Every structure is written in C-alpha cells, then in structure tokens.
Fold this sequence. Notes:
Layout lengths: L1 H25 L14 H26 L5 H9 L8 E2 L13 E8 L8 H11 L4 E7 L5 H7 L5 E4 L8 E6 L3 E8 L6 E9 L2 E9 L7 H9 L4 H4 L3 H26 L4 E6 L7 H7 L3 E2 H5 L2 E2 L13 E5 L4 E7 L11 E7 L2
Parallel strand pairs: 2-3, 8-9
Antiparallel strand pairs: 1-11, 2-14, 3-5, 4-5, 6-7, 7-8, 9-12, 10-12, 13-14
Helix pairs in contact: 1-2, 1-3, 2-3, 8-9
Amino acid sequence: MGKRVLFSLFDYIGGIITIILSFICCFSFLSKFIHPSQIITFQWISLFLPVLLILNGGILIFWLIRRKKWFWFPLIALISNFWFYPSVINWSFSSGDRESSLEKINIVTYNIHAFRYDKSAQGVSTFIKHKNVDILCLQEIPADMTEDKLSEIFPFLPYVAITKSSDNSIRTSILSRYPIINTNTISFTERVNCALAVDMEIGGRTISVINCHLQTTNWNQRSLIVAKENPIDRGYLFPNIQRKVMEQNFAFRAQQADSLKRLIEKNAHPVIVCCDMNDTPASYVYHNMKGQLTDSFHSAGYGYTYTYRYMCNLLRIDYIFYSSDHFNGILHESPDINYSDHNPVIATLSLTD
C-alpha cells in the first residue's frame, strides 16, 4: 500500500509539472506579437523555448512509457509550436531551380567578436576569400579599426564602410565587391549599438544593404563560467540584477527593431538585411524586423541551424533577410568555425528578372 501511495503522489506531482510546462509552451506564440514594454514574460518564454520544447519532448516519452494519460499535455504543447520548427529546422531544400536569374550575390553576416580569438582576423579573411564573398557584413569590429585596416585584412573587397560613431559604440562594417554609393550610420538612442545602411550598384540596380547589431542580452557562456567558478557571483545571474538588465535589454532590442522596421518600409530600393539580432525566431524582435522580408534559411536552408556556438548550440540569433520580390534564395549555411563566439551566416541570393 505504501508504494502505491508513493507512486500515486509521484504521478500527481509529475502531472502538475507537466501541465505547467505544457501550458507555458502552448502560449509561446504570443511572444511574436506582444511588445516587451507591455508584457516581458513572453520574451523569456521565447528565449528559452528550445529548452521548453526539449523538456516537453522528454516528458512525453516518460508518460508514454508509463502509459499515463498525462502524455496528452506535452503532445499538445509540441504540436502547438508547429510555427517555430521551420525557423530552426528546414527539410524543404528546393532552391536549386532558381538559378536562372540575372546575377548571383554571395553575402555573409558575421559577428567577429572584435577579432579576439587567436589569429581570427587572418582566419576570417582566408575563409571569406575561399567562399568568394561579394558582400561582407561585420558586427563588433574593434574600436580602433579603420577602413584602411579593414582593406588590409580583406583586400579582395575594395569598397568599405564603417559606422561613424563614438568610441564607446559597438561598431559595424560593410565590405563589398560592388561600388558603395551612399552610406548612413543609424544610431539608437536607447544604447550604443548602431546600424549601417549603404546603397550599392549591383547588376545595374541600386540595392540597399543594412547591417545591424541589436542590444545584447548581457547573459552568455562567460557569465555561466564566472558563476560556476565563483559561487559568490551566482546571485548576479538570477533573479536580481542580471534579470532586470536582461529585461531592460528585451525592451531596448524591441525599440531598435521598431526603428529599423520603419526604415526598411520607407526604403525605395530592394533590401538585404544582415543582423546579429541577439534574439531567437520566437521573439517579438525577429517577427517585427522580418516583416514582409524573407529569411534566407526559410528559402534556402537545410537541416538544423544555430548561430551562437555556446549554450548547447540551441540559439539562432544571426540572420539574413531580403526582399523576395527582387531576390531568390539559392543557398543558406552557417558553418561552425572557431574564429568567434558566433557562426557566420552565408547566403547566396540571385536578382530576379
């Protein structure tokens, strides 16, 4: 009798946990539509959605093995997130028939982490040259980096633009084989992050390329290592100061995304957006920034993808968007190379007739 009561209690507690986790997952879609300044909770759900889905998958298997009806809850939760799966898993690679267009453009977006990794500048240069890249969008370039220095690192990309901003800003750059005819630094009043917009001539057309680096989360692999090695610092992570900082940054990113969306919608030219968004495809920022643009992974990716090299490879936070009326996606990849804490994102786009 004692064991039966114990198992019943275990099933009851497990059932309550199952309902809570399933309930949270079922409402994750609201993170796409609710601004962080209104309700912050859904942005936390969007950040941890991959973990929540894995937990629900494990719980589903557990209850199926136990032959308990609790399995319906995680099953419904997993089904309700069908909208999220194509953002990280794509099995419909079918862009090979789109290669009949006028001109192909190889474009890369890459947070280079200020070239802090050993010999990363040389390594990135060799990699980019090997990939025959036409347009290179870099985030987190060193504070003392000049256009001349970038030209020395990437001599095969003759046209260079860097954000014009204060020494405290997080700078971005665009390098190109195509002539850059206009350059505009976009400053964000919320934070020192900034974006860079350029117009360039490609195939006789004027194309706008926007390179942006949105507000960081301030929570990363290094924070976890510090907390593990220094238990006294664990309180900094959660639930006090660090939680408040991250919640502020959710709101900052949303404001920056709102500003950039307005800029994109006003642009009279075909647009390519390269972005270290610091947010997942489940977030308000991603949904708002992408708008009517096409995510290159959706159109030309294959298999599972991530761009942040830590956190168990669960986070996709770097993107290439484009105007689907003017471009077709031919190829998308994000190879894991050891020159930064991010992976580069590579897309081959083609101009339409």
